[in-house]
Q: What sequence folds into this?
C-alpha cells in the first residue's frame, strides 16, 4: 500500500508534466475529495497508508485532471466569497476576480437585484446571502444554468428571495431594480484559441465569448438597462482587464451620466459602475 504523501508526490509530478498550474494544490484537494475528508486534514494523513478504494478513486481523479478537467468539476463544488457553490460543465467556474464585483455591490445599499447571465448563481446568491432583506432575479439563456443557479439558491438558503428565469438578457425581465449586475461573456472570438484547456474544453463557450469582439453584451446592457433601473440605481459589470476603456466608452455613448472603472485586487480594470442613465 502507498502512503498519502507518496501518492500526492506522484500525482503532483504527473500533473506538473501535464502542464497543470499549481499541481501540488490540486493533488492535495483531489486526495481530500477521494478520501472524503476536509482538505485541511490532508497534512495529518500524509504518513498514513491510503486504502485501495481511495487510491483507485484518486487515480481516476488525477487522470481526469491531467487532461485538464477543472478541479471544481471533479469535486462538484467551488468556493466563492466564503461559500461553497455546486458546479457543473453547464456553468462558468466562479473566479476569484469576480469577488471584486461583489465588493463593489456591497459598498452601497440595495434591496432588489437583477443578475444578467446568472450561471451558477454565485453573484446573485452571494448578494442575497450578504443582505438578508434583499430580493433578486437571475436570468440566463441556458436552461441548464438556470437549474444550477436554482440549486445553489436552495442550498445556500436564499431560494425564497431569488427568482431564476430563462431569458435572453432583458427579454423576460419585468420591473425595476436598484442594482443590476453581470459577468457577461467578454472574450473575443479571436482570443479563444489562446485560453487554457480548462476553459476551452470544459466550460460552456456561451459563457466565455460572444463569438465576436467580446463587447456585444455591454452594448445590450448599456442600451437597455435604463428601462429596468431605479433612478438612483447602479449597474455593475465585470470585464476583461484590457476592456476598461472600451466598455466605459460604450456606456458613455449610451448616455450614462456616471461611468467609473474599478480595479481588482491586482490593480487591473475589472468592473464598470454606471449610474444616472439618460
A:
Amino acid at each position: 500500500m502507498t502512503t498519502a504523501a507518496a501518492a500526492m508526490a506522484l500525482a503532483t509530478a504527473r500533473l506538473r508534466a501535464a502542464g497543470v498550474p499549481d499541481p501540488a494544490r490540486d493533488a492535495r484537494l483531489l486526495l481530500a475529495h477521494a478520501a472524503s475528508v476536509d482538505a485541511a486534514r490532508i497534512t495529518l494523513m500524509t504518513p498514513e497508508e491510503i486504502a485501495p478504494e481511495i487510491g483507485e478513486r484518486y487515480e481516476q481523479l488525477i487522470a481526469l485532471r491531467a487532461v485538464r478537467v477543472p478541479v471544481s468539476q471533479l469535486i462538484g463544488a467551488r468556493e466563492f466569497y466564503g461559500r461553497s457553490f455546486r458546479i457543473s460543465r453547464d456553468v462558468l467556474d466562479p473566479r476569484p476576480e469576480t469577488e471584486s464585483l461583489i465588493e463593489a455591490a456591497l459598498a452601497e445599499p440595495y434591496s432588489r437585484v437583477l443578475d444578467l447571465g446568472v450561471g451558477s448563481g454565485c453573484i446573485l446568491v452571494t448578494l442575497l446571502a450578504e443582505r438578508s432583506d434583499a430580493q433578486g432575479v437571475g436570468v440566463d439563456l441556458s436552461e441548464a444554468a438556470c437549474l444550477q443557479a436554482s440549486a445553489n439558491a436552495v442550498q445556500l438558503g436564499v431560494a425564497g428571495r431569488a427568482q431564476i428565469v430563462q431569458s435572453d438578457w432583458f427579454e423576460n425581465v419585468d420591473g425595476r431594480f436598484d442594482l443590476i449586475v453581470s459577468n457577461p461573456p467578454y472574450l473575443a472570438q479571436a482570443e479563444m484559441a489562446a485560453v487554457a484547456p480548462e476553459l476551452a474544453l470544459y466550460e460552456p463557450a456561451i459563457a466565455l465569448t460572444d463569438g465576436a469582439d467580446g463587447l456585444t453584451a455591454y452594448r445590450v446592457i448599456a442600451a437597455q438597462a435604463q428601462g429596468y433601473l431605479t433612478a438612483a440605481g447602479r449597474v455593475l459589470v465585470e470585464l476583461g482587464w484590457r476592456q476598461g476603456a472600451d466598455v466605459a466608452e460604450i456606456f458613455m455613448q449610451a448616455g450614462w451620466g456616471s461611468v467609473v472603472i474599478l480595479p481588482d485586487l491586482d490593480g487591473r480594470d475589472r468592473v464598470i459602475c454606471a449610474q444616472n442613465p439618460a
User: Anything to note?
Assistant: Residues 90-275 form a domain with the Rossmann fold fold (CATH 3.40.50.150). The chain has two domains: 4-67, 90-275. The chain has eleven helices and nine strands. The first helix runs from residue 4 to 17.
